[in-house]
């Protein structure tokens, strides 16, 4: 079974002449076919894009539940948000969360994948259940970890002998505790992708490096890591983008608190638009987050494209 | 030793023991919370906060959360939220399949003007911050009466299910050798018949994997139901957080029992499609 990363080998064929077509199918119908097939999907897209643009439009209004007849206020919301220290606090929390969680998940995920690749007896048993944390809903993960973190009866304080006063979700620790939950959920995602990558590698270079007597670390750094880099980048894209819009388990565990210690951008937007019913302010938050996500996505995808081309070239 | 990077080679050395210990450490961390959830679900209300590992297990909690008694105790009608989750997730996946399969086929088989735009717009739904769409939908749904309905959920869940279905299936259709379809066309099959009798049966594993994965992620979704439903059309993920809220006695054991029930469908489905998970989770970007 071989593994490839798309963009390298498979490109859709251009619309081409079909051999010996029945005369009842005129050329224009064949040309129109892909468009006709896509129409339902395009309608769904329109149905999703409409609220999206409406949300962007809310950003230049003063729309809220107490002001149901909004007027155009220009960039007032943006000026208000961009000079608000709470917003920049949310930006900081979001970025710290995304960078630390993604980084830790990559290191641990690659580590777990390398260990599982050894195919020891222990490893083969564990590989079957590797996926489990990823398949538990993040909300449920939040609920379980919330019960485990509980200072009075939580099992973590009991197991680690921390007494009943140690608070995992205090102002100083809360962000790190929710990052730990994210690591618990999503490290298997990275491990699964990277393991598939490692298993697809050709054996020859590794056998050569063994013959040459290269050390484990040298082989890993010079051979394995460059070859699985495209897989790691795919994992980085998924994880980093998801971390920027993180909501579920943080909301269940801390609802953004204590204070604003874990108030990520989506939680801030939720507070503004759904709890305080100030739709315009919440939409402004979301629009700014969307720009951040968009720029990051463009950058990461271009890095991935380069890495894939390099890997394709290197492997010949 | 570099042999460790090779698949299939085993040695019983100090390194291999250490590696197994490291794996054991990881999986203790990874499996303990799930084990803890199950243990808590087996405790009585008297034991739920007073004991850690030694207790007399009971299955009573599972019956309680699914019955009227559970609703009485916790004011959460868990059974009806289960039905809502099943109906809205199955509905969302079916809509995505009916609409997404033709689009995936078109994008996988032909390169036509705008195909990349359509595909990347669909993919961007996966990465867009949910609230950017959900806040306006919250206002719209209130105006047109879709707030707190299963139809409303099916509609918004397309954000989750559509990108998965379309992108996974596009990669499957791309892998399908075009010669097969050309042969059928030469035999006088129409394009529609070729699609239905040649292409579609060959990507059946892909359709199953995409549908199940889409179901899992729709089932696990929280933010849509949190914002777009009130009391009538809550999903299981919202219901579980409600077990903890409210004053009075807290039923952690019932919460855990409900969590176990809600976590089972995704876990079972994931284990059945394990072979196709890598490709599905990466939206077809990694083919294993």
Task: Characterize this entry briefly.
The complex is a heterodimer of chains A (316) and B (288). With 316 residues, chain A is an all-alpha fold. Helices cover 69% and strands 1% of the residues of chain A.
Molecular structure report:
The complex is a heterodimer of chains A (316) and B (288). Chain A has 316 residues and is mainly α. Chain A is 69% helix and 1% strand. In chain A, helix 3 runs antiparallel to helix 10, helix 6 crosses helix 8 and helix 12 runs antiparallel to helix 13. The relative contact order of chain A is 0.13. Chain B has 288 residues and is an all-alpha fold. Chain B has 2 domains: 66 residues, no CATH class; 210 residues, MetI-like (MetI-like fold, Orthogonal Bundle), CATH 1.10.3720.10. The chains are: A mainly alpha (316), B mainly alpha (288). At the A-B interface, strand 1, helix 1, helix 3, helix 4 and helix 5 of A face helix 1, helix 4, helix 5, helix 6 and helix 7 of B. Strand 1 of chain A pairs antiparallel with strand 1 of chain B. Chain A: Pfam families: BPD_transp_1. Chain A: One of its GO terms (biological process) is transmembrane transport. Chain A: It is found in: Cell membrane. Chain A: Keywords: Cell membrane, Membrane, Transmembrane, Transmembrane helix, Transport.
